[in-house]
Structures are given as C-alpha cells and as structure tokens.
Amino acid sequence: MEVKRRTAKSLVTKLSSVSELTRTEALCELRLITKHDPDARSLIADAGAIPYLSETLYSSSPDAQENAAVTLLNLSINSKEALMSTRGLLDALSHVLRHHGPSSSTPDAAVQSAAATLHSLLIVDSYRPIIGAKRDIIYALIDIVKCPNSPPRSVKDALKALFGASLYALNRSTMIQFGIVAALFGLILKDGRVGLVEDATAVVAQIAGCEESEEAFRKVSGVGVLVDLLDAATGSSIRIKENSVSALLNLARCGGEGVVEDVRRMGLGVFDGINNVVENGSPKGKNKAMALLNLLDTRGLSSSSDGSNENLFRHSRFDYLLHHSS
After folding, report:
1. What average pLDDT score do residues 86-113 get?
2. Distance from CA of residue 309 to its chain's centroid?
3. SS3 324
4. Sign of torsion, CA 151 119 160 32?
5. What single DSSP character describes residue 193?
6. How far apart are CA 159 and CA 143, in angstroms?
C-alpha cells in the first residue's frame, strides 16, 4: 500500500509540471490506475489529484479533457465526498457538459464521463439539492437529451443524471422550467432504442410528481403517450410499462380530478395495460398499478352520476380488475 501511496503522490506532482508531455503521461497513467485498481482511488484523491483534474477539464486539449473526465468518474466510485468538497468541481463538469455537440472540440467521451460522474454523485441524497441548484448543469443535461446529434451514450448518461436530480422533489420545477418534459417525450416518440426509452420514462415518472407537471404534460399530450406505452401493440418492455404507470399515478395525485378523467377517457385499453403490470410487474410496479386502479375507480365512481350503460360497464370492468388480479 505504501508503494501505491508514493506512486499516487508522484503522479499528482507531475500534474503541475510545466511540461505538457509530463502532464499528459501522468493523466494517462492515473486514468488506467483508477480504472483497474480500486484501492488506489482513495490514495490518488488524498494525494490532491482532484483540483488538478478539475482544472484540466477547461483544457484546450481534447485528450487531456477526456483523460481528466474519465479519471474523475473513476474516482467518484470511492471518493464522492472528496469530489464534492473540491471547490469549482461542479462548475468544471458543467463546462464540459455545456460544450457538447459536433461544433465543439470537447470529446464525446468527456461529456459522457462528466454526466456519469454527476449520476454517481447523485446517489448520495444530500448532494441532490446542491447539484440541482446548479441550474447550468440541469440545463446542459436537458440540452444533451434534446440535441438530435447527441451520441446515445451521452443521452443515456444525461438521463441517469437527470433521474438522480429528479429524486429531490424541489429540483423538478426547475427541470420543467428548462423544458425537460418536451425533451423526454420527444425522445420517447422518436427513439426506438428500448434502453433509452426505459431511462426516459423513469425520469418522466419522477417529474410527474410536482404541481407544475400537469400543464407541461398537457402541452405534449403526455397522458396519451403514457397510455399508448401501456398498449400491448407498442411492444413496450415491462419496465417501460411500470414507469408509465408510475408517471400516471404521480400525475393523478398531483394534478387531481382533471388528470384522472383524462386517463379514464382513454378507454378500456388503459385498464388492460395497467392490469398487465399488476399481473407481470415487479412487486413495486404491481403496488403502483393497483394504487392507480384504485385511484381511478374511487374517483370515477364518486364523480359519475349519469347512470349510463357506458359508466356501468366501466365500473364493472374496474371491479373485475381490482378483485381478480393476481
């Protein structure tokens, strides 16, 4: 271990060298060590590497940016507190994220690693409000999702970071203000890659749980899209269906009667889709599906007064789903 500690100190010292070649060699070696040697990560962080790596994210050298970003990502696995306590780190990550795209010299791998580093940090509950308060970071992550030229890996890492940020309820209104709802539904409708749609709907489910969500979802016909995802004909994965159910449930709880009626107007197919999650979903997914059915049933019965055959049929259908689901 002492040998590793001395190696870490030597490499970190080289990061401040006036020789660009020396700095580059040290960066490359640090990247490899932090990837393959978990024990060395904390030693490298303790040796003071993070401020140098953070500063290197502003470098005009694409290779240096990439090596620094990947090394920070590796360090975030074991040294989250060290990263978050480094002054200017979040601003440096934001700089990389904001310079994504084909017109920028910032390499895609650096952008992906910066987003992945944020996702890693956002695992810690107490960091979510801190990162969420960096509005430029949230804006940049959403812009990556919106940009048609963003590589799939960058989009996936951005979605994961946005999901982590959305777990803190007070971040959701900022995300909606920056257009996340349109960006997410645009991705869901235009991208056929199951993994990205699963990640996008996971964020949708969280974003739905705030007061501002109803209006934003209505502008993009969000309820209709979520209901379509529950249709067996769309071939959605069970995870996508569970996320759709969770989004509808959160939206109904926050939006009230208007949202509930919007869902019920979609016809009996929506209830079949919810029941499919009750029967085939994960335990958590099943519970949310049952909660959504109960919410629709309770409000539907209490608000119906015309006694039409259609309403009676709907109510009997609810009763069947609620009492005959496995």
Report:
1. 95
2. 43
3. helix
4. positive
5. -
6. 11
Q: What is the pTM of this model?
A: 0.90
Handedness of CA 282, 288, 294, 297 (dihedral sign): negative
Q: What angle do CA 297, 298, 302 make, to 5 degrees?
A: 115
Q: What is the pLDDT of residue 207?
A: 97
Q: Which helix (H) or strand (E) holds 237?
A: none
> pLDDT grade, residue 258 (50/70/90)?
confident
Average pLDDT over residues 74-83: 97
CA 140/CA 194 separation, integer angstroms: 23
The C-alpha atoms of residue 28 and residue 31 are separated, in whole angstroms, by 5
What's the pLDDT score for residue 50? Answer: 98
Distances (CA, A) of 24 to 2, 21, 61, 110, 203: 24, 5, 10, 15, 38
Q: Is residue 277 a contact partner of residue 286, using CB atoms and an 8 Å limit?
A: yes
3-state secondary structure of 114: helix
- Mean pLDDT of the 223-247 span: 94
Pair 71, 107: CB distance under 8 Å:
no
Measured torsion, CA atoms of residues 210, 214, 216, 218, in degrees rounded to the nearest 10:
160
**How far, in Å, are 186, 204, 292, 303 from residue 264 at the CA level?**
24, 20, 11, 12
Q: Kindly state the tokens that stand for 132.
A: 């969420």
